[in-house]
Amino acid sequence: MDSFRIHGGARLKGTIEISGSKNSALPILAATLMSDEKCVLHGVPRLSDIDSMNRLLGDLGCHVFRHDPNEEGLLIGPALNGPLEIEVRDATQCEAKYDIVKTMRASICVLGPLLAKRGKAIVSIPGGCAIGDRPVDLHVRGLQKLGAEFHYEKGNIVGEVRGRLKGCRMYLGGAQGPTVLGTINVMCAATLAEGETVLVGAACEPEVIDCAELLIKMGAKIKGHGTPEVRIEGVDSLHGAEHRVIPDRIECGTFMLAAAITNGELQLKHCNIDHLIAVTDRLDEVGVHTSRENGTIHVSSNRRLNPVEMTTQPYPGFPTDLQAQLMALLCLADGISVITERIFPDRFLHVGELNRMGAKVRKEGATAIIQGVKELQGATVMASDLRASAALVLAALVAKGTTQIDRVYHIDRGYEKIEQKLASVGAQIERVAEAKMAA
Ligand code: EPZ
């Protein structure tokens, strides 16, 4: 139950190395369940969600080992993260228990790989989520179309396959559009199905492409990944592979906004600006300039921030995972901005906390109207979910006085050593352990 204490006002200046992608590493780790040999993954960040997935793989009979090149404790940033080795030692387990699933919804990613490889899966139904309604019906429906049978028992999804999964042509879209982890779950299962599967309405996120790239290295036959129509020709088995996960585009976008909100200048290394085209487009409109030079993104901003309108969309549109952070910036824009959240219509828990810091944000259904203010005030605020917490950190970096953000365990789920990275470019931020807070 640590907290962050942030004294606002410092202009961020310097270079930050972007870590590997959490949202790519999680489904990729689950996909290694289908390999008959060891897999080696590079660039996997050190995060509590990754630890949860590694524990889950352990429960499912995998030996998970991380090389630690930092025995001497000299390295910082992504270089610190030695490769992760995953090897299936016991393929009889097939249950993903509630105690892990309740801490991390992405546990659902083992459903497809277990069914395809072990013919059975018992996965606790992911419960409620701070960002809103998050059913997994599209995952189940897609796997049912491949021939899996499901029933629900004691809060679990129980899936079984008689014989082998069978490829088919299916539509995978939902009311809010494509599903990222649903596409990956069904794509994984289809790699070991009989015949061809065609996923229509597939998600196009870079994380889908990255998982497909790993599966292809494991011997899978996949085409069209990154487009709305993915074709998978089933194979009999998959072998080991070595793969480097892509940089974290959401972490990168968060630091871009940190540079903008502090009117700072940052160089962001080890990231792919092409994964953020809708973000740089919006930021340009706000008055935040990004340029790329030799793989490094340079971010700087005008003193005056323009108000904008933005609607979150599936990739390549503006990502919902940067909605809260953009809102924090627009709280200081010169006029009225409007944000519409199309992916998770209830994803606005940060609004109340930003208003506690002197922002003027009004929510109307899935839309937020942001009246720009001259300054924000330091206050004690509560982190509620991963990205909402990142927005509070950004607001605190520019607020007058000191802000205390409680429950930062939410941030540790998706940002690797964020306080060290921010402090290295001038932020006045410290992590305060609960005990010290109480004293
Ligand atoms: C992934 O979640 C990310 N998580 C989320 O990031 C991200 O917000 C989301 O994609 C959208 O970009 C990981 O990669 C671990 P979806 P996912 O299925 O795949 C509805 C973060 O902050 N839907 O693409 O679970 C759903 O309710 C996290 O890092 C169904 O209706 O999201 C939503 O409205 C938060 N039925 C929409 O589709 C289903 O079976 C898109 O969700 C599945 C989804």
Average residue pLDDT: 94
Largest sheet: 4 strands, mixed
Major β-sheet strand ordering:
22-23-1-24
Helical/strand content category: alpha/beta
Number of helical regions: 15
- β-strand percent reads 15-25%
- Rg over alpha carbons: 22 Å
The helix content is 25-40%
Question: How many beta strands in the DSSP annotation?
Answer: 24
Hetero groups in this structure are: ligand EPZ
Tell me, what's the shape?
globular
What is the CA-CA span between the terminal residues? 14 Å
Low-confidence blocks of residues: 72-76
Verbal overview:
The structure is a single chain. It is built from 15 helices and 24 strands. With 439 residues, it is an alpha/beta fold. Strand 22, helix 12 and strand 23 form a beta-alpha-beta unit. The two termini are 14 Å apart. About 1% of the residues have low confidence. The site of ligand EPZ has 28 residues, from helix 1, helix 5, helix 6 and helix 12.
